[in-house]
Amino acid sequence: MPGGPLLPRRDPIEKLPVLILMPHERCNCRCLMCDIWKSKGRNQLLPEEVRSWSAEWRRLGTRRVVLSGGEPLMHPGFVPLCESLRGAGLETTLLSTGLLLERAAEDVARLVDDVIVSLDGPREVHDAIRRVPGAFDRLAAGVRALRAVSPSLPVSARCTVQRANAPHLRATVAAALAIGLDGISFLAADVGPGAFGRGASWAEGEEASIAVPAGELPALEAEIEALERDCAGELATGFVAEPAGRLRARLLRHFAAHAGQGDFAPITCNAPWVSSVIESDGTVRPCFFHPPMGNLRTAGSLEAVLNSPAALSFRAALDVATDPVCRRCVCNLNLRKGDLDGPPARRGGRGPARGAAP
Asked: Is the pLDDT of residue 352 over 50?
């Protein structure tokens, strides 16, 4: 099995291989499926804080830090923040909209170990979902700039599948190839309340514009079948990260369950035991979707948050197979023993960063 056995769910936590940082609260896209860009907050993680915290992260066995958002490249201290991580010997994955990659290419190539960009479809579809004119071309220019500076830097894409791009999976793979990316992964758009900057509920009509409705599920199934036929080479080589069977579970079955046609696919996930999310105000979560466990700034250390009585109680009671939040999750993590070994080019950013999508 790739990567070896799943890392165990041990308590109290003594090893935390992956950390996801949300350095600030801003974004330069206006995506249909996300409300982070609406935030007016000014919270941000400071480079000097990251530098002071990183020694403990190393003691906890952290190997990889994922910079999520929002758009990390909009952080005014992006360079010193990354320098702090690099100085501590931590590998860094950058999740980016791609809009600022061209101007930041030299810094990104120097300070980041791999990049995952958001790709929502071919040019017209991508721009419509991002609601930024020229977003696709700016993304492509950013990838070219990175290639010019560092040809070996792994740069892959993640596509958040929703109603607007569900008919264009093959065209999205073709776009990823044309841009010169190393691969692409697909996950379903999260349509539940509370995620990605949303409040307790969607604004009227917004949910229907994102979820693939029951009447369009046959077309999605046909597109997955066509992807399996027309992109067989890309599936075989792993350029498309998920095999066709997994795409059916993660996309078709997910949206069918959301439409009341059957149940969500069974999942396994070890995210709360092997990773944590640190938000721009210091809030620590076990993953993107479960409630906070504490705050790094007030607790004094990450270990104090991870192994607080509340956190231990939460993990002891968590059954990911039946928990309603976990059952609907679009990006469960299954970190295995060897997933962080070897050069980043062979990992392509997949796996450890699964739960973070700008």
From this structure: no
